[in-house]
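Write out the 3D structure for:
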Amino acid sequence: MRTTVGIIGAGPAGLLLARLLHDAGIDSVVLESRDRAYVEHRQRAGILEQGTVDVLRAAGAGERMDREGLRHDGMELRFAGRRHRVDFPGLTGGRSVMVYAQTEVCKDLIALQLKEGGPLLFEAEALAVEGADGDRPRVRFRHQGREEVLECDYVAGCDGFWGVSRAAVPASLARVSERTYPFGWLGVLADVPPSHDELVYARHDRGFALLSMRSPSVSRLYLQVPADTDAAAWSDEEIWDELERRLETDDDWTLDRGPITQKSVTPMRSYVHEPMRHGRLFLAGDAAHIVPPTGAKGLNLAVGDVVTLARALTHEKETGSAELLDAYSATCLRRVWQAERFSYDMTTMLHRAPDATSFDDGLQLARLDRIASSRAAGTELAEGYTGFPIG
């Protein structure tokens, strides 16, 4: 099998890259180790930055998002019983975010790929990337019980943290920067309308809490918990009681309860692999970087990566110049490190560390009070949350 760009992974990064390349007249083949049903139902992030929304619309994948997604023009910060709204459009010149689950993004892009794009092979397990530093890289993969080879001009590694792509970069050339946090998120889905019409980020002495949503009738909520927490150890009543404590305010706001349909614990870590390119192999998304979910950056960073890569491949096709391809890693990493900084700042401002002192508590409250009282500080938060420029 032969193609111009071999794409490993049919998450949002790989699928969007295939779509962008199709629109540019560049052929590709997408290899995905899981079956279609799994890809279309795995639960992941649900906050799309303004830039991600714009890209999906331009790629023809925005119709259902615009119909069913929930545009948010702000968020609410809660601390010390206070409520402060951050006005995204007013602070950023019109930017907002969209609540639209990654599962739905994948469904939309899969439908487009199968209707108009190149081959998308499910249950095609990539085994190795070979010859990345030569002119003809190859992806060995297993499909329908047979081992096959996909020959490419370029390989895009969009196969996540545990995929094979990053392993093709020699360890002697790589630099890894990471931080593991001593807490995680206990996340639940509940069949109850959200108790607030915008995202609520709460800092509390008992730990962080987040009120989010999947739809007008389904709430998505999170609690900071120790990293080794077993989600099954929390009863539904205990979860609702703790959410109520951490989201409490000095006014008459109340938290509505409903049946909890899903529980899971998400670990918290920051990770960056440099470089994001080795020869003709380009890493994108979680294959190259991970952020804690506090800043809602993971999916959006992956979109930024593949937009940058598609732009560079299109430039090379149209001009013969590899200038943008050569700059891929540096271009992406500038945005990646800004997102890492923003996510770290949000995480350390809102979560209470196990060994926190009264000094640490005072600093957190001072940072939140600064955002609530300073337009400049509010603008910094709003600009970061709605998204850094792509490219």
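DSSP finds twelve helices and 20 strands in the chain.
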